[in-house]
Design brief:
homodimer, 2 domains, Arc Repressor Mutant, subunit A, DNA-binding, Tetracycline Repressor, domain 2, 0% strand
Chain lengths: 204, 204
DNA sequence: AGCTAATTGACAGTCACTGTCATAAACGTC
DNA sequence: GACGTTTATGACAGTGACTGTCAATTAGCT
C-alpha cells in the first residue's frame, strides 16, 4: 500500500480527501453550533458539505466521530516519554501535558475547546469520549511502562494511568452549578491543577 | 432485589409492573448470553418477555439500560458515610466498598458479575457505563463533602472522587491479554487492590 | 356497577448505520 | 495519448433503535 510513491508527494487524491474531510467536519461543527447536535442529521451535514450521505460514513464511522478526533493523547504521549526519568509518573505526565498544550497553535486550541465543549455537553458524545478515556489509560500505561522499564500490563502502572485519567475527568466534567464557573476558568489550567493535586497525594 | 414491598401497599398494579420489568430484564440478559448483545433485537426481547416492543421502551429508555442498573453506588455511598471520620477519603471509600460488597447476597453478586461482564465487553454499553462513572464521581464527591464538611463543589474533593473512579476503571477494564488474567482473578479483589494502591500514594 | 387514570399494543414514522453495485476520477505504465 | 488498475463516490435498499399518537384494555377507587 505504500513504498511505491516517491518520498515526498502531496498526492492529488489525498489532497482532495483531506479537503473533503475538512469540509465535512467544518460544516458539521457549524451546524451543531447553529441547530444543536441532535437536531442536525447526517443528511444535512452531507448536503452542506456537498457530498452524499454514504460518503460521510466513509470519512467518519459514526456521527459522533466528527467531534471525537482527539489525536491529542498521541502528542501528550510523545512529550511524556521525553520527560526525564527521575520524575514520578504523575509529575512527568503533568509536565508532558503542559508541553503538549503549549505547542498548539491558537486555531488548534480554539478547535480543541469547541470540540471539548460538545464532548462535555452532548451525552451521546460524552459517553463515547469516556470510552476514549479508557483507551487513553492504556496508552498512558504503555508509555509509563516504557519509561520505567516495567511491564505494560503491570497492575501498578495501569493504576497510575487510571488515576491520571480519573482526575482529568473530574477536572473537565461539567457539574451542576460548577458549569459556569468552569466556563470562566481555563480547562487546561484545571487539568494542570488536578494533576498537581494528584502528584501531592490528594490532600484534603 | 426487594423494592418497597410492604410499607403499606404492595399495590397490585405495581406488582405487575415489577414483574414485567423483571421479566424483560431476565429474558434480555438470557438472550444476550445466548446470542450476543448486537444480535439480539428489542423485538426479540419483547416477544420473549411477552410484551409489545412499545412496552419495552416504556420500561427501559434504551436497549443499553437493561444492563445498566447499577444502584450499587448508592449502597456504597451509604457505607461510605458510615466510616469513621479519621480515615482518609480513599481509605474510607475502600472500607465502604468492602462492606457494601460483603453485604450482597450470592445471587446479587452473580447478577452484578454478569452485568459487569456485559458492561466491559460491549462497546456500546461500556461507553454508557463510563458516563455513569462520571455521574458516580459526583455522587462520591457529594458524600465525601458531607463527610469532611466541605463544599461539594470543592475542587480537591472532586479530584479525589475522580482519582477513585479512575483507578476503579483501570482495575475493571479489560486489556488485550490482560482480559483472561482478569477473568481468573476476582474483580472485587482487583478493585480493593487498586484502592489500596491509591491510598498508598501510587508508588511504582 | 361506574368513573378515572394508568398501562398497553398497534401503527407509522425518523434517523443512524450497513451493504452492494455501477460510475467516474486519479494513478501508474506503455 | 491510450490502456488497465485502483480508489473515491453516489444511488439504492435494507436493518434496527427509538419516538409519537391513538384506541382499547385494566387496575384503582367510590
Amino acid at each position: 500500500m505504500n513504498e511505491a510513491p516517491a518520498v515526498q508527494r502531496p498526492g492529488l487524491r489525498e489532497r482532495k480527501k483531506a479537503r473533503t474531510r475538512a469540509a465535512i467536519r467544518e460544516h458539521a461543527l457549524r451546524l451543531f453550533r447553529e441547530q444543536g447536535y441532535d437536531a442536525t442529521t447526517v443528511d444535512q451535514i452531507a448536503e452542506a458539505a456537498d457530498v452524499s450521505p454514504s460518503t460521510f460514513f466513509r470519512y467518519f464511522p459514526t456521527k459522533e466521530d466528527v467531534v471525537l478526533l482527539d489525536e491529542f493523547d498521541i502528542l501528550a504521549v510523545g512529550a511524556f516519554e521525553a520527560q526525564s526519568a527521575d520524575l514520578s509518573p504523575v509529575a512527568a505526565f503533568r509536565a508532558a501535558a503542559r508541553s503538549a498544550f503549549g505547542s498548539l497553535g491558537a486555531d488548534e486550541l480554539a478547535r480543541l475547546r469547541e470540540t471539548a465543549e460538545l464532548t462535555l455537553t452532548v451525552p451521546e458524545i460524552r459517553a463515547r469520549a469516556m470510552d476514549e478515556f479508557a483507551r487513553t489509560i492504556g496508552v498512558i500505561a504503555e508509555a509509563a511502562a516504557r519509561r520505567s522499564g516495567r511491564d505494560p500490563n503491570d497492575f501498578a502502572v495501569r493504576n497510575v494511568a487510571g488515576a491520571i485519567v480519573g482526575v482529568i475527568m473530574a477536572a473537565t466534567m461539567p457539574w451542576s452549578d460548577w458549569a459556569e464557573e468552569a466556563a470562566g476558568s481555563d480547562m487546561l489550567d484545571r487539568i494542570d491543577a488536578a494533576l498537581a493535586h494528584l502528584e501531592a497525594g490528594l490532600p484534603l
